[in-house]
Amino acid sequence: MRSGGRFDAVRSPLRWALRLAPAVLILVAGYQRRWMSDDGHIYVRTVRQVLAGNGPVFNAGERAESSTGTLWQWLLVLAGLPGADIAAAAVYGGLLLTAAGFALAAWGAVRLHNASRASRVPRAPRLLLPLGALVLLALPPVWDFATSGLETGLATCWIGGAWLLLVARPRSLGTAFVLGLGPLVRPDLALVSFVFLGAQWVSARPSWRGALAGAGAAGALPVAYEIFRMGYYGHLMPLPGVTKEASQSLWARGFTYLGDFTGPYLLWLPALFVAAALLPYCRGRLFSRGRLSPPPAPSTPAPAPELAPALAPLLAPVLAAVVAGVLCWVYVIKVGGDFMHGRMFLPGLFLLLLPVFLVPATRAWATAAVGVGVWALVCAGGLRIGYEGLIGPGGIADERGVYVRQNASAHPVHHTFGGYRENAAFARDVRAAGRADAPALFLARNRVDADSPSVTAYYATLGLNGTVVPLDGAALDPIGLAYPLAAHSERIPGRRVGHDKWLPDEWILADRGAGALPAGFREERVAAARRALRCGALAELRSATRGALTPGRFFRNVVGAPGRTSFRFPNDPLRAERQLCGAKAP
Predict the structure, then answer these.
(1) Which of 243, 247, 317, 586 would staple 166 via disulfide (CB 3.0–4.6 Å)?
(2) What is the mean pLDDT of the segment spanning 59-85?
(3) Residue 297 included in any domain
(4) Membrane-crossing residues (predicted)?
């Protein structure tokens, strides 16, 4: 009855249901937790500037790349062309891409296991059970960042699609092109591109001409965009990478971030279930059916195992996913983690779970799936962080919970801050100034005279700031996510992760203010800041980001991008003046 009988008629729909269930479930869970982060609204302003004809900038007149996810930004531009609500497109587009990533991962698992089985004895497709998918579906951060307006959904889709292509079409130039897109999805995903492209080479073993063609296909778009980035923005990376010091090492803080993610959900428990099933499975697969040389008889010398050529296309995608996932986690730990709970570990976790996303319905794997399933029910139903809706003691936030509370809305997409009076009052003040069409500079809620024809607002909640400031005005932030001057200031030790920089108000008055100084500010400090802005590397930074983009300026931006990206200056205006201008100390 195993072929053509009633059992097969039931088994085929069951196979499809198990394969599609993860994508359907994340679609439901993500929709129930839909929201828009403040950082998601940073993308929205840049997209509005593009659609208004001002170019891919956050503020007209200053070339700053505030969007970490380049491809995500341009996908939102495409969504906005016919007039779609950009914030809604970011939320629901991210959700659909997350579900697509889960579906592509499941398809890749099916192709991997069926190809493995067919290479031994042709049989009907086997029944596959969700295992790694259960781990992902149980975690609240996965539900939260299925939307959020950020590039996480695109990253999930790209990783799932890239892995599927690596499994199914390792010899295709189209596969090389897709694998090379990692740094345009997120700069740190260049690690994944590098590992996956190496795995493609191991699987395909192309000629030197084929290898060059593959390298050209993989690098064409990222290299072209990097040249554009260097010439247009004058930097090697998006401005948030400069702000957050993506090249620094903050291991202790990174391990704190790791514990904040793995501890509350007892992630070691599903890892044990997977390992318990994986070790005997790997041993059986590698040392059976002639794929590796079998263990020698006791009387014969032990030869070194040799990898059969047929094994490479099956093993390379598995090892590539694991290696890439480990590298992603190591990088996140190295740079000190992030201020959003769990977010930066999600791409690496997805990669680590790809080889076991779906597993064969053998006794060992089924036992593991049951164990992980029980953990998943407990985790999804009750395991939570201890600071829901708040910023935790380590500066790590339940980001969705914070904005749900501050907006007094279960699904905050367009932020009103009905539960946070300070932000709501700031928004009212800035909008009123914009309607009056008069120059104004807001230092938080303190309004002073501005050296601009429109509204300039200096406020830490940058997404909100960008929403309320007119497109011909300037929405600036002291952290430097979209403000080159703040991004290149020195990091302040001990501050909250992701908020390590805070440019003093004197710099804003020197850069954008006019007229008499407000009460509480010292003339000598503002004057020192004004002089520093005209000296050395700081003057060159302003020319690179605000000067007319002539061919000569583009070329100088490209040549100077490495030094400009690494340039930092002291927060204190008096020290900055002495360092940049050579002025004598008072």
Answers:
(1) 317
(2) 96
(3) no
(4) 12-31, 86-107, 127-143, 175-202, 208-228, 265-287, 307-332, 344-362, 368-387
